[in-house]
From TrEMBL, chain A:
The lineage of its organism: Eukaryota, Metazoa, Ecdysozoa, Nematoda, Chromadorea. CDD domains: GST_C_Sigma_like, GST_N_Sigma_like. Residues 83-207 form the GST C-terminal domain. This is glutathione transferase. It catalyses: RX + glutathione = an S-substituted glutathione + a halide anion + H(+). Keywords: Transferase. One of its GO terms (biological process) is glutathione metabolic process. Residues 4-81 form the GST N-terminal domain. Its EC number is 2.5.1.18. InterPro entries: Glutathione-S-Trfase_C-like, Glutathione-S-Trfase_C_sf, Glutathione_S-Trfase, Glutathione_S-Trfase_N, GST_C, GST_superfamily, Thioredoxin-like_sf. The keyword Ribonucleoprotein does not apply. GO terms for molecular function: glutathione peroxidase activity; glutathione transferase activity. The keyword Transferase applies.
UniProtKB/TrEMBL annotation, chain B:
Its EC number is 2.5.1.18. Keywords: Transferase. GO terms for biological process: glutathione metabolic process. The lineage of its organism: Eukaryota, Metazoa, Ecdysozoa, Nematoda, Chromadorea. This is glutathione transferase. It catalyses: RX + glutathione = an S-substituted glutathione + a halide anion + H(+).
Amino acid sequence: MSPPHYKLTYFNMMGRAEPMRLMFAYAGVPYEDNRIEKEQWPALKSHMPNGQIPVLEVDGKQLSQSMAISTFLAKKFGLDGKDDWESAKVQEMLGTLDDVKLKFRPWMMEQDANKKAEIFKTVLTETIDPYLERLSETLKKNGSGYFVGQKPTQVDFHLFHIFNWWQQGNIATESIKKHPELVAFTEKMGSNPKIKQWLEKRPKTAM
Amino acid sequence: MVNHSYKLYYFNMRGRAEPARFLFHLAGVPYEDVRIEREDWPNHKEEMPWGQVPALEVDGKKLAQSAAIYQYLAKQFGYNGKNDWETAQVQELLGSIDDIFSAMRPVFMAQDEAEKKKVMEKIVADTVIPYLTRLQKRFEANGTNYFVGNSLTVADLVFMVTFASFKDRFAPGVIEKFPKLDAFVAKVSQEPKIKEWIEKRPKTDM
């Protein structure tokens, strides 16, 4: 039986596709990293079954929604926890991360530099700092160096991407520094040879 | 076979807990349907992981996030698709309806009725109608009267609950523009165990 052919379509940026790209790299599984430019999107949109990207194509069948894609791949790569309860905890953490990302959106959409800075201050105190506090507690309590269970799960890749992106963009640096275990987690994930190799060779984009 | 002890924590409303309540009822599995009054919530918030409800407690361990809860219960009770691809489709559909709710948030936040109506009309036209158009096509293409595979999954339950709440409250007249989806709600609501829960559940506004 031949291995499945995977094609991941997204914009030429990290965004919602990067955790999946990290998992492909970690698992050593080849895939087509199909990046489209923003100008191409309007024409392509009507061809995507759900009018959105990222889309994962597996032997010609298409799947949209980043969490569905991430979880489908995580299961294939052994990155979805050791049992149903761990998988559920993984989903719980992905959901809370998504809630946090939603709160970022006003900051990301704001064009005016002054307003942007003001919004960020609020996002930092109301959302980022409390969230990092909870993450740090979860990591310490779990005790394995990973967020769920004893081995890496897709949550670790989603969170590594965020921390790595923030590091790159000098976002919330002071906040992260308050949590040495989160800093250590980021370093540990980043120093994995397969992940390191991907970080070095991937196209460099701001987001 | 191990019997687990289940508790579901939420407010005294259908809202985000209802698909989980349907799953318990469909599976014939007993659970404690804990309904917290709004005034009492501050006393319970810190008991919940992430300070939110719904939360599911299984043998004393708690789980938050409605999607996590639905998929866990659906997996336990056999309503999460028959293979990894179907399970992925279930999750895809759950994610897509959640996006619609996020898009509708400005409607829930609007201050007065006039503003609410204006904001709603725009979101319905720009986002909800295109989504439902695609969704109806997908439903028809699947050809089984269910959204995934050929039997009921938690995706069907979430759609039924959501579309019913659109019809009754959040976006009256919208689902009715999609005859196949409208018929789906009516048909699924008539399945014996589903009908049973609809009839016996506590009657609340939302």
